[in-house]
Structure to design on (1048 residues):
């Protein structure tokens, strides 16, 4: 690594240390953890945009699927609800898949003409009606079981680390569907397709209460395996004794300790992702990806199946977004589909990748840490700064309004940063080699 | 160094052809002289001249090396030479589609080196590019109207003249230019350029890709235009035929003047014949 | 069987709302298609530009109201609209000068400019939230209903009422006027034709003496007019909320693509297609069907294909279907 890059990373590290010293270590670690999660997702976006030039405008949706996976794996069991109609729901969904597959099969097999159109339409319409006849009553029964507590099919109550793996799978599966449709179209409509699919995924999560309780949220999700709960730590005599020896206050020490364990866990995942990603980049596969990116026509002429490669890399990138989304829900112990926002969960990640340097994993990491820090810190210090800026104004409703809405400054400042980077250093802080 | 890499990064599409969010079709590729420059008097000298032109695209190497092209009023000048000799580049430089690093361009007693292409159009220059030389989505008539964009007077007379010169265009005036045949498109392209009633007409390989019959026809029309008093500067692949109608000819090799003379002189020059006219 | 009542229910709950929403989408999609055709990138800041224009108009409306100016039965916002358009135009021209022009001169890849527009989106988002906040703002004044359902019932003697809100009528009228003006401008005026020429072939436009900077400036002014009008009409009809405008990006893009990106006519048709599909698919048809079939056949269910929460899924499905069967959109857009 060049000395310039070491300097950049030291600078970002200094930002976090300064936050710890001048604000609180608790806050610094919280920001670090959120940034590390964002870094995992940013690796995915970098894989897609940096390596393959795929414009994914729906990162949010894939991250949310990761969150869903955690709710489904580590969430409480609800055997009654599942018995009431769980199987029937999944049977209905399987039927829906079969109907669509059947329609596609028919469309491909039959000869062009009116018969084909009618047959396909009939299959779809009849299939839809039957699906609704099976699906609707089952959903009603499931949602009727203890709606205040569960009202969904329930989780598996296993370690939420499994949810991270399932999150990757779910996201990759959805990516396969999107990629099959969008990458195969004559024009490359990936950007708009992903923008749309992300909104749809969020709407599904919000409205399908039987799945993960929708906007009623799944809360109190258990911590992933090595992470203890603060209360348990505070009640552990060994822990209390240990921190007292160092002269720390147990309540504060426990929250910091928990965050450090999270940070270590996230760092392990991130390290693994970066290591694999760097290996992939320098492997024949990575070279081929870049060859396709830099000259698709030539690569296609050389017999490379461009669409297939694009599908691969799109699924991989989305899987990373799924893992990141799962990590986020694991850390919050809360799955709330209402909190997903394209600005925060899609475009902020894009800012990280572009600011850090598209096509360079270390750049994306730096971008995630820097932009993540900025995003959260501006929200905190914004009101103070705004209070200072407006100190010349008379106290009044306008000044109060400005100070109140100061947290929105973060959107503004991130936009300005993105524009400045694209203007003066379009290759990002750590450019692609 | 880093500036250049930044520029490369800005132009890098990463293989992205996402036509749903971007559109590269019809995008400008030229980096013309920026608007805001001024012309100043430069009395004497030929009617149209690019003198000692040196330049290249973007930050790339020089393509033109001290190249000089000049033509007197009402004459036909032809630039010939092997592929990659910088013929089209010389023409673009004269029109301001390429900023010069050295040298100057003068027209009708004025130094116009600093003028942007639209300002040169206003001073009586017209340019017909080799490819993409019609607005495909617009009708023939709209194409001609766009040629007359800078004119505030009534240009219906000029349009009639163009229709007289190319009668087929009158028939197809309401048809989108994109639907015409290659030869008809070239006629639209030349017609569009004539709509400003230019003093000089610059033609970049007007006969590229058209059939021999259409080619003869086009040459006839070009002579007709020259007789009307319009100075013509033309780049041609069909060197022999072009030199036959040329008052003055320039042979360019690697962006520099190799031979200059009247059309007849060049046609009879054994070196030129052997190297560029195929014996 | 009661066809008249069924028709009234249909008009009241499906046709009028869909036509209104479609007009708003069409105006929005026209803006997207203009930027795409002439500046050659998709403007992700489009939704937020609509919010910005609507916000300025709201402030102007409040100012007029404070001065005691009103249009009687018509909303004051109509009087404030030109102010909103002018301020938005100045803002967009300044954005172009500070941000976009640089990339145009450098001949940057359009995909990079699309990413640049993400930055502008963040900035606009911040500005709007900073000024007017994230809450609902209702700025419709004057007469609310031109025809109330009760009046209609009394007049027609039917069981069902038909209402026409002022905001709906204004949307339809303003949209029609805007579209006529726009097409007249594009096909009949010298400047309009020069914009089409520039969109078709930038280099040839330059050779014809068309000044690119002027074309771009006029484009931004038109886009300001379209987005502000669309934003204000949407705000009058529903309510102003910063985040909702951002979300409109998807149906607007869908409308522009379905119609054929780069084609103004396509943007309008696309807007109505998306709007009508959304309303038709998410409307509960029980009432209409009950009127149409014999009593014993009356349906038990709501006859709603999907709930309104999935309206994005509808625009998206339409988009995918059209792209599979007509990759360049209905009116043959510019994409390959």
């Amino acid at each position: 690594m060049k000395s310039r890059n070491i300097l950049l990373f030291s600078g970002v590290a200094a930002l976090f240390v300064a936050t710890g010293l001048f604000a609180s270590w608790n806050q610094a670690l919280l920001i670090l953890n959120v940034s590390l999660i964002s870094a995992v997702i940013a690796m995915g976006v970098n894989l897609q945009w940096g390596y393959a030039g795929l414009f994914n405008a729906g990162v949010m949706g894939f991250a949310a699927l990761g969150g869903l996976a955690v709710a489904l794996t580590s969430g409480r069991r609800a055997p009654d609800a599942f018995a009431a109609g769980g199987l029937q729901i999944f049977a209905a969904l399987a039927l829906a898949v079969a109907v669509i597959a059947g329609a596609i099969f028919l469309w491909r097999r039959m000869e062009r003409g009116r018969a084909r159109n009618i047959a396909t339409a009939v299959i779809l319409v009849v299939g839809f009606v039957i699906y609704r006849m099976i699906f609707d009553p089952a959903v009603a029964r499931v949602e009727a079981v203890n709606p205040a507590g569960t009202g969904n099919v329930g989780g598996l109550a296993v370690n939420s680390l499994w949810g991270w793996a399932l999150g990757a799978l779910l996201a990759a599966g959805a990516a396969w569907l999107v990629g099959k449709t969008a990458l195969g179209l004559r024009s490359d409509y990936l950007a708009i397709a992903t923008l749309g699919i992300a909104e749809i995924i969020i709407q599904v999560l919000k409205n399908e209460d039987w799945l993960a309780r929708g906007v009623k949220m799944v809360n109190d999700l258990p911590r992933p395996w090595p992470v203890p709960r603060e209360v348990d730590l505070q009640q552990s005599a060994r822990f209390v004794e240990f921190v007292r020896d160092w002269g720390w206050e147990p309540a504060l020490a426990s929250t910091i300790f928990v965050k450090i364990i999270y940070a270590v866990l996230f760092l392990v995942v991130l390290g693994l992702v970066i290591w694999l990603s760097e290996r992939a980049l320098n492997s024949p596969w990575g070279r081929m990806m870049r060859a396709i990116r830099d000259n698709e026509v030539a690569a296609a002429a050389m017999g490379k199946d461009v669409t297939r490669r694009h599908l691969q890399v799109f699924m991989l990138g989305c899987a990373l977004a799924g893992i990141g989304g799962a990590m986020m829900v694991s850390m919050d112990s809360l799955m709330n589909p209402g909190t997903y926002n394209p600005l925060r969960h899609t475009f902020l990640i894009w800012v990280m990748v572009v600011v850090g340097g598209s096509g360079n994993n270390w750049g994306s990491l730096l971008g995630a840490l820097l932009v993540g820090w900025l995003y959260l810190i501006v929200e905190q210090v914004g009101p103070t700064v705004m209070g200072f800026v407006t100190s010349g104004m008379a106290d009044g409703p306008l000044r109060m309004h400005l100070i109140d809405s100061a947290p929105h400054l973060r959107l503004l400042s991130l936009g300005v940063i993105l524009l400045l980077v694209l203007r003066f250093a379009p290759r990002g802080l750590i450019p692609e080699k | 160094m880093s500036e250049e890499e930044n520029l490369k990064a800005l132009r890098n599409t990463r293989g992205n052809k996402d036509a749903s969010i971007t559109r590269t079709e019809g995008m400008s590729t030229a980096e013309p002289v920026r608007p805001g420059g001024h012309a100043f008097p430069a009395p004497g000298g030929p009617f149209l001249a690019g003198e000692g032109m040196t330049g290249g695209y973007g930050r790339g190497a020089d393509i033109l090396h001290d190249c000089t092209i000049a033509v007197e009023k009402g004459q036909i000048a032809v630039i010939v030479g092997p592929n990659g000799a910088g013929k089209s580049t010389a023409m673009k430089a004269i029109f301001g589609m390429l900023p010069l690093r050295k040298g100057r361009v003068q027209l009708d007693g004025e130094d116009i080196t600093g003028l942007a292409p639209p300002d040169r159009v206003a001073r009586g220059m017209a340019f017909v590019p080799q490819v993409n030389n019609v607005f495909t989505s617009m009708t023939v008539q709209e194409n001609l109207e766009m040629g007359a964009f800078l004119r505030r007077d009534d240009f219906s007379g000029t349009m009639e003249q163009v229709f007289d010169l190319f009668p087929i265009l009158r028939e197809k005036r309401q048809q989108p230019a994109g639907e015409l045949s290659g030869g008809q498109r070239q006629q639209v392209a030349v017609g569009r350029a004539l709509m400003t009633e230019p003093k000089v007409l610059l033609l970049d390989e007007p006969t590229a890709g058209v059939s021999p019959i259409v080619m003869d026809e086009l040459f006839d029309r070009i002579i007709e235009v020259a007789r009307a008093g319009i100075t013509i500067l033309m780049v041609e692949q069909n060197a022999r035929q072009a030199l036959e109608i040329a008052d003055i000819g320039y042979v360019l090799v690697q962006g520099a003047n190799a031979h200059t003379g009247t059309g007849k002189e060049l046609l009879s020059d054994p070196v030129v014949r052997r190297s560029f006219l195929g014996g | 069987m009661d066809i008249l009542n069924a028709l009234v229910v249909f008009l009241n709950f499906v046709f009028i709302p869909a036509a209104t929403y479609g007009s708003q989408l069409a105006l929005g999609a026209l803006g997207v298609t203009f930027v795409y055709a002439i500046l050659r990138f998709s403007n992700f800041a489009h939704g937020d530009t609509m919010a910005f224009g609507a916000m300025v108009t709201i402030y102007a409306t409040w100012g007029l109201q404070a001065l005691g100016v009103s249009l009687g039965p018509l909303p004051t916002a109509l009087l404030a609209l030109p102010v909103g358009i002018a301020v938005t135009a100045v803002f967009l021209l300044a954005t172009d000068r500070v941000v976009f022009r640089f990339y145009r001169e450098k001949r940057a890849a359009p995909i990079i400019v699309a990413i640049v527009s993400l930055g502008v989106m963040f900035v606009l988002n911040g500005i709007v939230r900073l000024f007017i906040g994230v809450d609902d703002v209702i700025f419709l004044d004057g007469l609310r209903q031109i025809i109330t359902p009760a009046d209609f019932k009394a007049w027609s003697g039917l069981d069902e009422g038909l209402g026409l809100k002022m905001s709906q009528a204004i949307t339809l009228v303003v949209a029609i006027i805007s579209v006529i003006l726009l097409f007249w401008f594009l096909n009949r005026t010298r400047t309009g034709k020069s914009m089409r020429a520039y969109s078709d072939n930038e280099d040839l436009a330059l050779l014809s003496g068309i000044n690119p900077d002027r074309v771009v400036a006029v484009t931004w002014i038109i886009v300001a007019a379209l987005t502000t009008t669309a934003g204000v009409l949407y705000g009058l009809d529903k309510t102003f909320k910063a985040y909702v405008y951002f979300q409109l990006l998807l149906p607007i893009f869908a409308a522009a693509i379905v119609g054929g990106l780069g084609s103004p006519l396509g943007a309008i048709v696309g807007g109505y297609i998306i709007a009508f599909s959304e309303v038709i698919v998410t409307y509960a048809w029980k009432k209409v069907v009950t009127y149409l079939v014999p009593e014993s056949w009356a349906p038990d269910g709501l006859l709603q294909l999907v709930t309104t929460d999935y309206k994005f899924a509808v625009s998206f499905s339409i988009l995918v279907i059209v792209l599979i069967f007509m990759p360049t959109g209905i009116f043959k857009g510019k994409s390959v």
